[in-house]
Fold this protein.
Amino acid sequence: MESAFNRLTDSPLKLAGVTVSIATIGYVLAQGFRRMAEKSNKLPSPPGPPRHFLIGSLLQFPNDHFYQRDIVSVELPGISMVIINSYDIAQELMIKRPNNTAGRKVGYMFFEVDIGNLVIEVAHGTKLPTMMDKDFTSWNLEAMEFGASALTSFWVVDIFNFLRFIPKWMPAARFKSVISSSFGSLIYRRMGARSTWLNKQVRHVPFEMAKALHKSGELGHCLANDLLDEFGPNDDTMEALGVLYLAGSDTTTAAVMAFINALMLFPEVSKKAYEEVVRVTDGIRLPRVSDRPNLPYIEAVWKEAFRWKSFFPMGIPHVNAQDEIINGYLIKAGSVLNPNTGFMLSDPKVWGDPENFRPERFLMDGADLLPNPLTVTFGYGMRVCAGMHLADRTGFHIGATIAALYGVAPLEGKRRLKPELAEFTDTFIRLPVGFEGRFIPRDKRVLDLLRIAEMED
């Protein structure tokens, strides 16, 4: 390289030619970028509801008829949001362009309550939950309340960040306190301080107990045991375990509940699922993880449970670092890209009869052309949910086992609810309202199957 450079300096004519060539290439590239910028500036934003001074589209948001388009732009105070109703557009933006669309919008309130729930047995073994069951339940419920409030509420501090410095007694400082019930009395807690405390509890407390059980040899086989053996009791081990159960608990619970709800509402589906398990296991054992490829109908029920009345109606938001052009529309840098999971999984143009729970749609010719509800639910590209594989593998096995052992029926004296009358919570994680039922053993062999499974473990 050095000798080539020396030859150029020995010939002024060659050096001049190279200089002109580099300058020409630079000029052409600059002009190309300028034309692209001019073109993008002339493109419209995706269509959306009317915008008003200061408040943007707040008065019209949400509005159902705008969701009928593949892509919608909404201006909220302090936030430019793009709602994506098309799976194809979501794939194009979030999977094919991940380097530019994998950012996230972290408002002040979201930053303060960035906590989650536990998949404690997988992370820390079976003994620890029996020692801390009530604590985990209490922390999880409170964490869910904080998380839902931060993600779904409108917080003025996210627009005017300087408000975080005002005293909590001022009228505009509601975000600094939350009213909650404790032992029958109403108390005010600083939301940020309380969520920070919760974050420490769910990370540090189980880890310290896991270390003690590991030292005494009582921890048993679990991820914590493996990590402590290999890396020791350091902060990286604690954080790895924390990420696992923070990411995996809500998704696994919601998925299993959706599956059980389907067995309750659709007894014919429950019957077919049971018959398939018996064909594979001969009725002499419980289904195993390795049986999954031989359970295509239950696989279809699992997918349909994710699709029908999606339990994550809004996906994980992304933020684009640079301007993006899609379908002739300009999405300005810094926009929140919000995949409308509920719409994608109930779009009549894609599913034909989205209101019907029909697992067979995933067994027909051309089923491979349908979006995979698990992919739609768990997110795209670099922002995919970290608990996806845990929720899928664990949840499917739990669902198949329940279908093999039990019929799910209403409580005694109550009728089975008609599917079209089923109600769901209007929350970040959508769950069945008033879900109550009985697990009725399929036959007298249930206890024997459970004993065999326990002996195999």
Summary: Residues 145 and 222 are 29 Å apart (CA to CA). Residues 106-122, 178-189 have pLDDT under 50 and may be disordered.
